[in-house]
Every structure is written in structure tokens, then in C-alpha cells.
Amino acid sequence: QVQLVESGGGLVQAGGSLRLSCTASGRTFSTYTMAWFRQAPGKEREFVSAIGWSGGNTNYADSVKGRFTISRDKAKNTVYLQMNSLKPEDTAIYYCATGPIAIPTMLISQYSYWGQGTQVTVSS
């Protein structure tokens, strides 16, 4: 099994930055695709970004391209989401997810394991 724990959320003004972290436990973490999703109040959970097992293959939602950067440290079993130029519409609970997926897909159904989420609030 894999367990995921997110951290790094908080309150920030528009234009500011935050870095989210997700630390995984489980021996297969290094071969799994890792992803971030988010869910705003009253909305469905949506894809944000994903990174393949090697770290060289990434995928981003159009809404965050050029502002967010995903990376992973396999030695620390951790994936990061650097969020810059934050906007009020980025406000949501951010979830880390993983699964035995070969490519960094945006399909939520492909991810088997989820963290509890961390709140990100961007004030205008």
C-alpha cells in the first residue's frame, strides 16, 4: 500500500507563491506517476499536474501552465508543486495522488491512492 501526506498549504495574497509537498510511504513509490488535483467548493475535483516516475515527463492543466511547476525527489519519496503568480481562482483543497501509471495522465480514475488534502487560499 501507499500512503500520501500533503503539506505546505496556507493563505497567500494574489500574485504570491506557495510550495506544496507530498511525502509517500510504500516501496513502489519510485515507479509510480505522481499527480496533484484540486477541488474548490461546489466544484468537481480537477487535474492540476502530474509527473512520471523518472521526473522527466510532466503534464499540466492549461489553467496553471507557466505558473506551476511539479518536481519529485525520489530519494525523499516526495513530490512538490511550486505555485507562483497565484490567483483567487486557485483557491481549493489540493490533493496528492499516485498509482501504477506509466504516463502522467490527467484522468482521475487512473489514480489509486490519495492524500487527505491541504487547503490553499488566495486572497484578492
Give a nutshell description of this structure:
The chain is mainly β. Helix content is 0%, strand content 49%.
Question: What is the overall silhouette?
Answer: globular
Q: How many helices does DSSP assign?
A: 0
Q: Unreliable stretches, pLDDT < 50, 5 or more residues?
A: none
Percent of residues in helical segments? under 10%
Please provide a written account of the structure:
- The strands form two sheets. Strands 2, 4, 5, 6, 9, 10 and 11 form a seven-stranded mixed sheet that branches. The protein has a four-stranded antiparallel sheet with strand order 1-3-8-7, with no helix packed on it.
- With 124 residues, the chain is an all-beta fold.
- The chain has strands spanning 3-7, 10-13, 18-25, 33-39, 46-51, 58-60, 68-73, 78-83, 92-99, 113-114, 118-123.
Topology:
Layout lengths: L2 E5 L2 E4 L4 E8 L7 E7 L6 E6 L6 E3 L7 E6 L4 E6 L8 E8 L13 E2 L3 E6 L1
Parallel strand pairs: 2-11
Antiparallel strand pairs: 1-3, 3-8, 4-5, 4-9, 5-6, 7-8, 9-10, 9-11
Main attributes?
single chain, 124 residues, mainly beta, seven-stranded mixed beta sheet, four-stranded antiparallel beta sheet, 49% strand, globular
